[in-house]
Amino acid sequence: MKILVVDDHRLFLEGLQSILADLYPQHEVVTFSSCRPAIDSIDEGAHYDMMLIDLLLPGLNGLDFLQSLRQRQIKSSVIVVSSSTEEQKIQSSLDLGAMGFIPKYYSGEEFRKAIHQVLQGEKYLPREFSHLAARSSARDADANTATEPQTAVVLYGRRREILDLIAAGHSNKAIAQILNITEPTVKTHVASLFRLLDVNNRTACVMKGRQLGLIS
Residue 110's CB: how many other CB atoms inside 10 A? Predict the structure, then answer.
């Protein structure tokens, strides 16, 4: 798994990088201090399974970054991490596809819980902002009703391999052995596939994958 972190405060950036390295020592953490080089890396072919983005950044801000991801149809789990707790900005980030919001004043343990929840395919918000998730879900439902069907999903790397192995009937344990990765990592990718394909079980995942031409 590859994780992107964008924040212009070096001390916080290094602290978050340390937390992620402790949580996922087998995964690569890539850091940038502004959005433009992060977007350039994506345009050059980099794929990130998770992104943690500050809202208040020089030049392009976090909302600009989320909008860029939407325009490029990038399907990654994005968490906004910010010292700003302005409801309108948090709501806007959710409307643009963010999977959660973590205040910068959170402890390392709270960061761990939030990141784990998002990697399981669930949205995360502090209790005092939980009402914003319902608003965002309602807007998503309205948008899906009013717009054309969703464009094709594009899968890269591990997710594509794991989808093929699920289609072949392999269990998470077998997939982990075949790909030489841990079973929890497989579960994380499977949860991500379910979210991307908008399904809730392996059979539906395979059926949707075949419908979209993702499985031969």
Answer: 13
Q: What is the pLDDT of residues 27-54, one digit of tens each?
A: 899 999 999 999 999 888 888 988 999 9
CA separation for the pair 157, 29 (Å, rounded): 16
What are the beta bridge partners of residue 50?
3, 77
Q: Buried b vs exposed e over 126-138: b needs ≥16 C-beta within 10 Å?
A: beebeebbeebee
Q: CA dist 78 to 48, 81, 171, Å?
A: 10, 10, 27
Place of tokens 């973590």: 102
Could you tell me the pTM of the whole model?
0.63
**Contact between residue 204 and residue 216 where contact means Cβ atoms under 8 Å apart:** no
Q: Which helix (H) or strand (E) holds 101?
A: strand 100-103
Question: Using the 8-state DSSP alphabet, how is residue 129 labeled?
Answer: G
